[in-house]
Design goal:
single chain; mainly alpha; 7 helices
Length: 114
């Protein structure tokens, strides 16, 4: 919700934040922030200052985004490995294709962040 190309994802960036949904990068940013920064970020979120929060995420959240993407890749690899253990079927093939597509998306986001 915070990174990527709106045309490619088909989703308007920042909508989760505007709805008050805490995404993994935001949670990572809060976890890594100093007490004073954490307090400021929470204040901005509670005030609904989404533009400032988005800017903070874009400028200060490189480590949080990297950690989120790495976590996503790890979970995806675990899921893909479990799918590979299942007998072949159209449903399994569809899930494998879905996992591969999500993996490509995560790799693309990782390349954009670099």
């Amino acid at each position: 919700d915070l990174a990527g190309c709106e045309n490619a994802t088909g989703k308007t960036l920042g909508t989760d934040l505007r709805k008050g949904k805490m995404t993994l990068p935001m949670l990572q940013l809060l976890r890594q922030a100093s007490a004073i920064h954490k307090e400021r970020y929470c204040q901005l979120i509670l005030e609904g200052d989404h533009a400032s929060v988005s800017l903070l995420l874009k400028t200060n959240a490189t480590a949080a985004m990297d950690e989120s993407l790495a976590s996503g890749m790890t979970r995806l690899q675990q899921a893909r490995a479990q799918l590979d253990d299942l007998p072949e079927s159209p449903a399994v093939k569809s899930l494998q294709l879905f996992a591969d597509t999500v993996g490509l998306m995560l790799q693309s986001l990782r390349a954009q962040a670099a």
